[in-house]
Amino acid sequence: MSRRRHSDEGDAGSQPHKRRRTSEPIEIEDRLESLICRVGEKSTSSLESNLEGLAGVLEADLPNYKGKILRILCAVARLLPEKLTVYTTLVGLLNARNYNFGGEFVEAMIRQLKETLKSNLYSEALYLVRFLNDLVNCHVIAAPSMVAMFENFVSVTQEEDIPQVRSDWYVYAVLSSLPWVGKELYEKKDVEMDRLFNQIEGYLKYRQKTHVPMLQVWTAEKPHPQEEYLDCLWAQVQKLKKDRWQERHILRPYIAFDSVLCEALQHNLPPFTPPAHSDDAVYPMPHVVFRMFDYTDAPEGPVMPGSHSVERFVIEENLHCIIKSHWRERKTCAAQLLSYPGKNKIPLNYHIVEVIFGELFQLPSPPHIDVMYTALLIELCKLQPGSLPQVLAQATEMMYMRLDTMNTICIDRLINWFSHHLSNFQFRWSWDDWADCLTQDIEKPKPKFVKEVLEKCMRLSYHQRIVDIVPPSFSALIPANPVCSYKYEEETECPLPGLAMATTVSNAIKNRASNEEILIVLKDVPNPNQDDDDDEGDGFNPLKIEVFLQTLLHLAAKSFSHSFSALAKFHEVLKNLTDSDEGKLHILRVLYEFWRNHPQMISVLVDKLIRTQIVDCAAVANWIFSPEMAHDFTRFYVWEILHSTIRKMNKHVQKIQKELDEAKEKLEKQQNKKVEKQIFLTAETLLFKPHIREHKDDMEKNSEDEEGQLEEQIERLQEKVESAQSEQKNLFLVIFQRFIMLLTEHLVRCETSGVDINTTWYKNCIERLQQIFLMHHVIIQQYMGTLENLLFTAELDHHILAVYQQFCALQL
Questions:
Q1: How many CB atoms lie within 10 A of CB 353?
Q2: What is the pTM of this model?
Q3: Where does the record place the MIF4G domain (predicted)?
């Protein structure tokens, strides 16, 4: 738009009449969009007078800009759900003034609802359903036709051979709309609504909930139950019905216009049948409602609504909508949250903090990137320095106290958030309040949490700073000074094997030796795995890897950049040393041994080794589950490495698949063009023009050559895709097989010793297995048949098999 205006202004001297014709409609359209989007925001006038004025403006512009107004209103219904009742009132006023426009809007909304459902945009579809429902309150849509639509939604529960998540969504769409429209529908169609409620109740009783344990933030039901979302909403709606549909937190501006709206003619919704289920449909996953506070936690000021009051649902839903609409702009998002309508009637800060942590801890993944929540909380603390930091500190303390029953995945996210948050507030914290962790075993959740937080803080600062900010009593939890451990540093009474060779290699590297020269030097390194009389010296030589990599890393230990340059410079040597699976595994062992006090360096260098194809993803997985890593198996950085490795593998497959799809698309376009040209040239040839015939032969030859090249490229890419997918499947098989072996050994050991299986290590390991399933569920679903046949068989211990069954239940 701005470019068009600029060019119009440039032509003003020569053709002034053209500028007016092109720019004035655009300016009016922009003004209409601005007026509609900004209604309901802070203003000197009342909301009612703003709505009445806007309705008048839009009515006057309907003859010329009806299409634009319809598009804007349909868009805000989908994209600004937090102002739902403001826009339904506006549509109601327009319908009262122009009945035909009201009918066209309802039809446009139904079309949009069908499109969003077909496109798997279920959260947007939910807002559209809710908008249509609120139009009943504004006398735009007749209540009986809305009840008929609800009946069609609930009838989905009777469909056969569909996943449960499909039925769940349609039931949720009905229940979540009732706080807005339940009263109106019950007054008009009470018998039908009772029948609908009985159907929903019957469905909720028989639906399976195997997935719930996998999605809970806390395993303990006290102090707050972690309820499945449909069960919780059903309890809230039941209480609302018992209270005669009275709620106090939904803004209802249409009440002020009741005398005008009740005179308007209403529209019947066209019959709406939910789109049939298809295999490529992706329904929203179930979730568990996050609860951290109740009325006892906010002793001063307004009382927090109970967990089963519908007000709690409405407040949380509106706060989620605000975050969804403004998450890209943290300042705007924070300001919108703090200016929530009706904030004086509720303990808003407690609700905001609970909703933000609820999203951050949502399983399998948060709705937005983790760092957004950190930035948003920092902004909220800046805007409300006198109250919000205290609520946030209280929440942190409560989560610390409940670490024993907190899901390991959520503890990871808590560590990331807390360390990042501290780094923005000079690492100030009342550490002495957590002194209880100092008397516990280091592997217990509380001391482990503090240790991991301090390690993350060190990544965002430096070692001495962490030593200075933490009380001396916490010294056992302070991370080690991140220095390297060079085994060939100095001579000892019993010289290490390879010490002399390490000195030789070090001198060669300092003298800028080439890859070939280094390889010649390394030929003299004896192989401890072979006898002296064994002439074959090309096998796996662990000492050769140790001498070279220890020396190389020592010389490049100054920084990440130095290490990257060293690995790049001697890439050929490293590839030569790791031409076997044992070599790849050993290079990771040597790297760990050298940088064992610097987890961040290990993570970064493992990433580099994968990118440069010195080691493969399966080697990293085998290394993580190897006995040498048992000491660090429950450390946070180890799982960062594993998930980063899996993501790299997945991206690699996606990249090749994309290249293959593009090549196929290109070939298809070329073949279509060829057919079109042949039709054209055949018509020309019929006129017996020899030069046309010759031209046709040349074009066909060129086209065939290009097609042949593309077909060869597609064939090569197809092979690459199959190879990459095989590698990807193998990676998951390795990971799950290792998990099963470790967990089975633990279960057998506990059973033979008569010890309780539920140790801290077991909780951590079983929840890490859950994490693999949850974080990579889209990819893993492709290989479920293989996993079921080879690993997760009926003979497997039920403790391990339960995790797989919970995962399967997420999409059933």
A1: 21
A2: 0.89
A3: 29-241
